[in-house]
Amino acid sequence: MHYAYPPRKSSNPPPYLPRSSRIPTIRRSHLRTIALFGAAIIVLIWLFSGGSKHSKRHAITGKPAVVVVTVFDDNDDSVYHKNIRENRVQYAEKHGYGTLLAKASDYDLGGSPASWAKVPAVRHAITKYPDCKYIWYLDQNAFIMNPHLKVEDYVMGASKLESSMLKDLPVVPPDSIIKTFMHLRGEDVEFVLSQDKEGLASGSFVIKNGEWAKFFLDTWFDPLYRSYNFQKAETHALEHIVQWHPTILSKLAIIPQRIINAYSSNDHGEQYKDGDIAVLFARCPGTGDKSCAKESERFSQQWRTSFSRA
Q1: Low-confidence residues in the chain, pLDDT < 50
Q2: Residue from 209, 206, 51, 191 nearest 136 by CA
Q3: Rounded CA gap, 283 and 265, in Å?
Q4: 168: CATH
């Protein structure tokens, strides 16, 4: 016969017999011993497998202090580009900096515009110079003009950043509701760039080497963002992630444009003045009377004279 429910217990259960207090004590003792033994085994496996090496972060020595990175168009050996290469090398040699002068084709961009190459190029610089403290990315259409200014002091010095960073500023002008942090300290800044009249200006920026930099660059270069086909490619992608990722915004400092990103004319942003660290030929075409090469001619002799006197 099957019961729909289990049979009721007897209404007269046997008298309660207390268990010996020794049994749980022995069990707890055994469990504790087993747990400690297991933990010891796990630690030994971790140590012998090199886990401690993987978890230990690389201690950055700051040598060189800065790496200057520029990405050039492919198959262009013009006098103009040779001048730019010479400009970068002379500046780096004066301060003991490293350089990474690459071509866009050096990197697999997955069909994205060549301007995206700046992101893996900076990541490449970190791999090539793991002990550098900062990376200064500067577009090919630019000259470094003031050989006396050192990036680690003039741009990235904590006190310098404290006085120059623009706080509570719309990230994308003129009316973005996302603004730079009010209470960010100079010593906490990892990424520095400026704005021009249209938004963030990614033609010149400085990033501090470290785990955050790797995370940021990998995020920026994510295939998802490259697939969005932003009108201004990597620059619009940067504006997007800065506004939507507080982890990135919290390490960002926007500084006045002329500190690292002055333009050769005031059509698109603040114009270069003598003494500025660099001049960029913004929005210039590749050919014609207003080409980048033509625009550079009025600055070519000037930078050479400045460097010869340094």
Answers
A1: 1-26, 31, 40, 42-49, 51-55
A2: 206
A3: 10
A4: 3.90.550.10
